[in-house]
Write a structure and sequence with these properties.
This protein is α/β, with parallel strands linked by helices. It is built from 13 helices and 16 strands. It has three domains: 27-97, Winged helix-like DNA-binding domain superfamily/Winged helix DNA-binding domain (Arc Repressor Mutant, subunit A), CATH 1.10.10; 103-213 and 374-389, Nucleotidyltransferase, domain 5, CATH 3.30.420.40; 223-369, Nucleotidyltransferase, domain 5 (2-Layer Sandwich). The strands form four sheets. The chain has a five-stranded mixed sheet with strand order 6-5-4-7-11, sandwiched between helices. The chain has a five-stranded mixed sheet with strand order 14-13-12-15-16, with helices on both faces.
């Protein structure tokens, strides 16, 4: 299916919140900004009249009439008849976004063993799932596998596709270039531009932990005053939302907690394990899923619990200063529940609370992401909604 602009209001999942803008509006962006406000209101609030749109957006009725006319011509919205009688005067004609007949393709690259993807409705419902085994592929081979998965998903879509969203490990710049993703062997890969050109579908790429944070914030009901989503898969990363805004940081590397050194040696006096980034003793070398599975292989439940708790304590030591400095209220885990939710999570919370002020640590929530394995997929859908429609 090719990229297109739209076509009855979906009644299932809706975005729960809007991200706070983090940049100033330039004069040349005013029309695009106004268009985004109209679409955003219709997406979140459902069908409404032109007069109500003007009141809600604080735009003039002339501006609203002009914008709605353009959106109607583009097929993004439709007129849905008049409002039921009850008000004095001529009945108002309702307009609404045409969401039921369009889809998004989303891909999550966080897993250590496979690439996972889905075709989703614009309101976040999964229509089709697909996955392909990585089987140790990195570099060009991994890129070819990703393109194959994307083509399979595009072919499975039964509605026009608005865009493709990808959550990838590593440092990703605003243009969707993978600056570095050591576990996948990708460096300076213009992933968004390449896939847009090769697939003919607008593609948006962001760090997988950031997309997971977007998913939890918009679809999962997590708060936005101080949220961290910790993704644990082939690597370890974190996405952070503070005061309603996604944190990117200098050079877009905010949240790279997986490469904080937490181990000085291997426990027997030897060198600490080497990380994919080239350094030794990174959090990722003990917390990534392959490392956790290797650590508890062949152990009975009690022994495995003790090993997971020891990793949880190291995680707590790494998280405590972050939680304290940012005054986080929620830290959510995204990854295998059987590994993360239990001794590891409990030990991490205890370590954090022992090393932070009570006003910070006492009410901290440390839990699994409410959206489960779909958290990054839903976040990738938000990338498309935002990038293609201005809906956040």
């Amino acid at each position: 299916m090719s990229s297109t602009v739209f076509p009855s209001i979906a009644t299932s999942r809706r975005l729960a919140r809007e991200l706070r803008p983090t940049s100033k509006l330039l004069p040349g962006d005013a029309r695009a900004h106004n268009r985004s406000m109209v679409l955003q209101h219709l997406f979140h609030s459902g069908p409404t009249s032109r007069a109500d749109l003007a009141r809600s957006t604080k735009l003039t009725r002339v501006t609203i009439s002009d914008l709605v006319s353009v959106l109607l011509s583009e097929g993004l919205v439709e007129e849905l008849g008049t409002r039921p009688a009850g008000r004095v005067g001529k009945p108002a004609t309702l307009v609404g976004m045409r969401t039921a007949d369009f889809q998004i393709v989303a891909v999550d690259l966080a897993d250590d063993a496979r690439m996972r993807g889905a075709v989703l409705s614009l309101t976040g419902d999964v229509v089709v799932r697909r996955a392909v085994a990585l089987e140790g592929r990195t570099g060009r081979a991994a890129l070819e596998l990703l393109e194959q998965l994307c083509r399979t998903l595009l072919a499975a879509a039964d509605r026009p596709v608005v865009g493709l969203g990808i959550g990838s490990p590593g440092v990703i710049d605003p243009l969707g270039t993978v600056v570095e993703a050591p576990n996948l062997g990708w460096y300076d890969v213009p992933l968004a531009a390449d896939l847009t050109r090769r697939l003919g579908v607008a593609t948006h790429v962001a760090n997988d932990a950031n997309t997971a944070a977007l998913g939890e914030f918009t679809f999962g009901g997590a708060g936005g005053s101080g949220l961290m989503v910790l993704t644990v898969g082939q690597g370890v990363g974190a996405g952070i939302v503070l005061d309603g805004a996604l944190v990117h940081g200098h050079r877009n590397a905010a949240g790279e907690i997986g490469h904080v050194t937490v181990v000085d040696d291997d426990g027997a006096g030897g060198p600490a394990p080497r990380c994919a980034c080239g350094r030794r003793g990174c959090l990722e070398t003990v917390l990534a899923v392959p490392a956790l599975r290797h650590r508890i292989a062949g152990l009975d439940p009690a022994e495995a619990g003790a090993e997971l708790a020891s990793v949880g304590r190291l995680l707590g030591l790494a998280l405590a200063p972050v939680v304290s400095v940012l005054n986080l209220s929620e830290v959510l885990f995204s990854g295998p529940q059987e590994l993360l939710d239990g001794p590891l999570r409990e030990a991490a919370l205890t370590a954090i609370q022992q090393r932070t002020m009570p006003v910070i640590g006492a009410e901290l929530e440390l839990r699994m992401a409410s959206l489960g394995q779909d958290v990054a997929l839903l976040g990738a859908a938000v990338l498309v909604l935002s990038g293609q429609l201005g809906v956040t």
